[in-house]
Write a structure and sequence with these properties.
Layout (H helix, E strand, L loop, with lengths): L1 H25 L5 H21 L4 H27 L5 H26 L1
Helix pairs in contact: 1-2, 1-4, 2-3, 3-4
């Protein structure tokens, strides 16, 4: 069940990241940070998706661990975008909360796999 929740949430989050990217490029004319957050924010779901078809338990664990690292990096870029004045506080808080939830799910999954 957890894998399905993280799969659904990471895909929905990726769609939000794509919208944020478009906003940052079109409205804020910001192209460096926006590209970074697009890359790592969409990579979370891609790695979760790859993990679903893992060839072994270690492969599954490795992909979920990469997804966790990408989620943590995404949180960092969100912080920079907020503190740099590129996104408003309500948008930041909403996206950061979603990212934090995904981090918690992935942490739980990777800890379970590591036991």
């Amino acid at each position: 069940m957890r894998e399905n929740a993280v799969k659904d949430k990471s895909k929905a989050f990726a769609l939000r990241i794509i919208k944020l990217y478009k906003y940052l490029c079109d409205e804020k004319r910001e192209f460096v940070l926006s590209k970074q957050i697009l890359r790592c924010g969409t990579s979370i779901g891609a790695n979760v998706r790859e993990a679903q078809r893992g060839q072994s338990k270690p492969d599954f664990y490795a992909k979920m661990s990469i997804a966790l690292k990408e989620a943590d990096e995404t949180a960092y870029w969100l912080e920079l975008l907020s503190e740099g004045g590129f996104i408003e506080t309500p948008s930041y808080e909403s996206m950061y909360a979603d990212c934090s939830e995904i981090i918690k799910l992935l942490t739980s999954i990777t800890k379970t796999q590591n036991d």
